[in-house]
Amino acid sequence: MKSKNKKQFTKRSKDQNFIVKENSELLSFLLAKITNLSRNSIKNLLKNRQIAVNGVPTTQFNFTLVKEDLVTVLSEKSFLKAKMNLPIIYEDDDFIVIDKPHDLLSVPSDDLKKTNVYQILSNYVQQDNKRKRIYIVHRLDEGTSGVMLVAKNEKIRNLLQKNWNEYVIKRQYIAVVEGRVLKKEETLKHFLAENQFNLMYVTKNPKAGKQCITKYKVLQSNESFSMLEVEILSGRKNQIRVQLGYIGHFVLGDDKYGHPPNPYKRLALHASELSFFHPLKKKMMSFKSPIPKQFKII
Fold first, then answer.
1. What CA–CA distance (Å, rounded) separates 239 from 106?
2. Quick check: helix, strand or coil at residue 45?
3. pTM for the whole thing?
4. Which of 60, 107, 220, 285 reaches 20 to 30 Å from 25, CA-CA?
5. 136: pLDDT strictly greater than 80
6. pLDDT (tens digit, 9 = 90+) per residue, 58-104?
């Protein structure tokens, strides 16, 4: 699913949020938006890490903002510094491809104390140049591990987000679900909608939801569990978890949908392969992550 940071990061009521309408430098943007504070006062906010861009506190007054960035004036100083290393599968001038651990957010949340991919990779690319930045193109759920693609420039981000279905050829996952799945292969087609609690559900009303297509193949199974190879042909929020649960096979460890067993002490969902057509190099690129060792059912 395509993702824009401003939709993923909602701050506390005492914080001030501003959406960037056009490219600019951070200090100039703040001076135009916060008219009741002096230039020195705004610089002090930056020094105290009370200015965040897309949820990541920054001290750089000349940080480059791009359209749709979310700039937040924090009501209190942030002490979070994401230093955790991420397994990098591939990197060039346009992309970073990582093997995301489970229980790590892709983008910032309300809780600034929770480390996330955006913060970690922002720190990584700024080691040699504080003005560098990364752009989240798609995201994985917090409990999902595996291959995740991040853009290193605005041009690539825009190309992928505007033409996601054209460039992304394959998104494959491994899921371990409850019960023995009897059909060895199947293509699931449903309409998914979202309720007031931000939970997705299957609806039979096509006007109320968006079509969701998921293919699966059984790799292993016993009386209690089944391991599936899953390919998504659409990008909807939580689609694998919701569609498999709808046919009676919830993903293990999923405390959001259903109440399946949790033998691995984590969500049993892993992004195993991502294949896409490089918009600028005009060639196919494919990246894989091995099935987690604990995903054993035999």
1. 17
2. helix
3. 0.80
4. 107
5. yes
6. 888 888 898 888 888 887 776 555 556 789 999 999 999 999 999 89
Provide the strand spans (E) within the chain.
Answer: 16-19, 24-25, 51-53, 56-57, 64-65, 70-73, 88-91, 95-100, 135-136, 145-151, 168-178, 185-194, 200-203, 210-221, 225-232, 269-277, 284-288
**What structural domains does the chain harbor?**
5-73 (3.10.290.10), 88-162 (3.30.2350.10), 168-288 (3.30.2350.10)
Q: How many CA atoms lie within 13 A of 190 on its CB side?
A: 23
Q: Are 98 and 121 in contact (CB under 8 A)?
A: yes
Q: Is residue 13 within 8 Å of residue 66, measured between CB atoms?
A: no
Tokens of 207: 């006007």
Contact 290, 270 (CB under 8 A): no
List C-alpha distances in Å: 188 to 78, 84, 199, 204. Answer: 44, 38, 19, 13
pLDDT for 6 beyond 50: no
Task: State the burial class of residue 132 (Cβ atoms within 10 Å of its Cβ: 0-12, 13-18, 19+).
Answer: middle
Q: Which two tokens stand for residue 171?
A: 């998104």
